[in-house]
Structure formats: structure tokens, C-alpha cells
Amino acid sequence: MRRVRRLRWARAAAILAAAKLLGCGGSGGGVVPADATVSVRVEAAAPAARVSERFLSFSVDTAQALGGVFWDPAGSGEEVPVEVYDFGRTRLRRLTSELAPAMLRIGGTAADYVLYDVSEAPVAAPPAPFELVMTRAIWDGIARFARDLDLEILFTLSAGPGARDAALAWTADNARTFVDHVVGRGDPVTVWELGNEINGFPIAHFIRIDGAQYARDMAVARALVDEHAPGARLAGPSSAYWPPVGEAFPVMPEFLAAGGELVDVVTWHFYPQQSKRCPIATRRAGPTVMLEPDNLAAVDRWADRIEAQVRSDAPRAEVWLGETGNAQCGGEPGVSDRFVGSLWWLDELGRMARRGQPIVVRQTLSGSDYGLLDDATLEPNPDYWASLLWRRLVGTSILAAEVSGAPADAAAAPPVMTYAACQRGVPGGVVVLAINLDLERSVAVEVEGAASAAAETYVATAPDLYGKDVRLNGRELRAAADGAPPPIAPSRARVRAGAPLVTLPPTSYAFVALPDAAAPGCG
Fold it and tell me: Which residues of the chain are modeled with pLDDT < 70?
């Protein structure tokens, strides 16, 4: 099977080279010199956007869930066999519960190689071209995990060659048996997604499904969901966008024009860089690649395009970033699971929240180098702590935040990125997220009108930018043996006129909560 995957990537390299794909990155907002004081003006009269209570979500790859092949955590560049994912681990459940409620996506490339057999005596091995079997026992573990932890499931249905007829039209027969099983049990699959990265099928499956064909497939899926899973939502096409290329082998525009009215959720995927595991790359991952503001802003460029298409052709649909991670192909060793990766992660969350995309799905909950958790030890990676702080502090009402006082040469300096929202669970409260990307200099952060207000600050730093240790207000974050997090306590002070809310060391981030802000938009 590994040889098959290498052949897929070899073919991908040849196809993309022949395509001569070109592009350029976008530019970011909220940029100021890192040696200046950042003055942030928060528009708190009304929310600028709203997101779901399950905004920060995560996935377990289908290959992991079913015991297929997944990216080698040792960084060999190959995919290696993995055991069926153990959703029953006590420590996994405890750590995951801190991020709930959320969406749990079961999807990924392997989703399109799955045969569904939930009978009492499932097949031991699936017929080609299927590679994996979803059995009743495996599904039981997934569903129990979701029910127990208040997770809704976004499930990617197989739309690969095995689920298609000779004319490459999708057939719903096998999927129907699985949908009926799930619905009959009352399991929390609230969104069904048809296929994974349809625009990537020439690479993953050696077939091309264009937007018009996918619209016809989606009509079949729409009828299936409406009849057999009423009340659930339907999603697709989960197109992958590459920096700075965008959607290679485009599907999204043609599909939306032909069948946009069929979907409830338009899903898309974005990784800002490719790890060394990827034999092809449009932006090769590196230690400081994602500290560049233009690279951070690339996600906005493609989100702009997708949202405009959806407004035109599928106005009733929501847009979800249905899969994202620090670097494609399992993450970049020594980068994606280190503190430096958290600066990118929080910036992307801030950007997507500011846009009002209701859901962002992180690849993955655990596994390889881009997991929130180390799958072998279940030790939290730095992005887990960043996610936990977001989950505890940031509400669903997002506020506009504007940086003022930046000098004319601000573009020459690394930026400080700022975002704001209503504070979770505190009527009238406001929380500001500030991310200092400067490798050498500290920055002071002010919020206009915050003088004499009570401030609760959570400053996250690391003794080594490329290490896994995270310190919150100087205290190391370490989970207990059962996965219980340590106390997450702020530093409290009253802001004096003319004094900054917080001073950020180089390459650090901070959440600053103002519980007494009495913001009209946060009532």
C-alpha cells in the first residue's frame, strides 16, 4: 500500500509540474513595528461577526480511525501502518473534553477508500479498489467518544472509485447502509460530507471529477440525506487550496454554479505550507516561514474568493474551513508541534473568526507532527494549550479590532497581530488576542479606553521557540497523569492611564480579558 501512495505522489509531482501553477501571497492587516507600542481600538458597539460554539474543532483522520496508513511520526516521508485509533483512552478523553463542545471530523484522503460493512460478520478485507472497512465495532468507538464528550460528527462519505459506476457517477448504495445504521442508533452525525478534496482526485485516485459531475453526485447525496437522515446537513466539495496556487484542478467554481443550492455547508481545506514529507511543494515549510505576514495572510486571499462564490451561487450555505494544519503531509518535524507553530495557529483562528466562518477543523486531534496531542504519549503539544486558552476565553461574538499609530515604515518590521471578541461567559466582557511575531523585540499593547479597567492577562511564552514547553505567566503548563490541565490563572491588575495592558516578549502571545468593559455588543 505504501508503494501505491508513493506512486500517487510521483504522479502528482509530474502533473503539477506540467501545470506550471503560479500565484502570489496576500497582505495582512493589523501590522505595526515590533519596537513600538501597539494601540488597539476595539469596536464593541456590536459584533462584527459570529461563529459557532463549536468554532475550534478537530479531526481524527479516517486512516487513523480505521487503522490504515498514516504519516510516519518519525519523519521518514512515508506513510506507515497504524493501529485502529483507540478512542477509549482515559487521558485522551480528559484532554479532549477541555476543548468541547466541538465538531469531530472523520475524514481525509483515506475516507474515499472505505467500504461500509456494519453487519454482524464484516468482511476481513475489502475488495479493490477499497482499502479499509468501517465496521460496527469501529463505529461504536467513534460514536461513543462523540456522545460522551459533546462532540458532533462531520463524517466524510466515500466518493472514490469504489463508490462510482463505470461512468464515474457516484452511487449511494453502500453509503445508504451506513447512514441508516448511524441514524437508527441516534448517533451525533450532524453533517455528512461527500468525498475528501474532490479537486485532488487526479492525485489521490487517478481520476478527474469535474464540478459538473460533482454537482450530479451531490444531487444523489442530497436525496440520500433528505430521505435517510432528515435534519442533518450536507457538505462539500472540501477542495484543497495550496499556497500560493489556490485550487489546483478547480472544482469549486463549476460545482457552485451547477449545484450550489444542494449544499448546506461549503467546505474547503488549507495548509499554509508543505512539510518535507511532501515530494512537491508550493511553499516549503521552515522554522520561520509562518512568521511572515504575507504568508499568514494567504488564507484570507482564498477565503475571499470562496466566500464571494458562495454568496453568488449558494447564498444559503455556510463556509467552513473543513481541514487545516500547520503543514501538509503530517506537519513539519520540529516546527508544527513546537511553540513557534502556535503563533500561526492563533493567527489563523483570529482571521477565520473575524471573517465569521463558523467552524475551523484542525488536522488532527492527535497524530504525526500536526496533532494537538502527541498520539504516542498523549502529551499536549503547544497548539493544544493555545486551543485551550481560546476555548476558555473567546466567545462566539467577534469584534472588530484596529491597530492605530503605526509609522510609515511598519511594513519593514515583523508584525504584531491583534484580534478581539466578547469574553466567553462574561456579559459585557471583552478579550483581546495579541501575537508578537518579532524574533528579537518586545512590544507593549494598549487598548483604547481601557484605563482604570480591571485586566486579566494570560501571557504565553517558551524558553525555546522550537521546543514544546509552554509557560503561562511564567509557570510551565503540564497536564496531570489523567489529562487534567493545571490551573489556568491570569495575572490581574487595574490598568492605569497611559500604561500598557501587557508587554509581550519576542515571539509570544497573550490573551487580555477586560471583564468590566461593559461592551454593548457583548451583552
Answer: 1-35, 405-414, 451-452
Q: H-type helices in 286-418, by residue range?
A: 293-313, 339-355, 382-393
- Cα–Cα distance, 402 to 29 (Å, whole number): 9
Q: Which tens digits make up the pLDDT trace of 312-332?
A: 999 999 999 999 999 999 999
**Closest to 519 in 3D by CA, of 420, 391, 444:** 420
Which pLDDT value is given to residue 511? 98
The 10s digit of each residue's pLDDT in 496-520 is: 777 788 999 999 999 999 999 999 9
First to last CA, the chain: 55
- Among 476, 300, 269, 433, smallest CA distance to 364 is for 269
How distant, in Å, are the alpha carbons of 27, 31, 228, 435 from that of 407?
17, 10, 59, 19
All three cell numbers of 202: 487526479
Domains and CATH numbers, the chain: 2-28+52-395 (3.20.20.80), 37-44+398-522 (2.60.40.1180)
Pairing state between β 502-504 and 454-461: unpaired
Strands 56-61 and 102-107 come out as: parallel
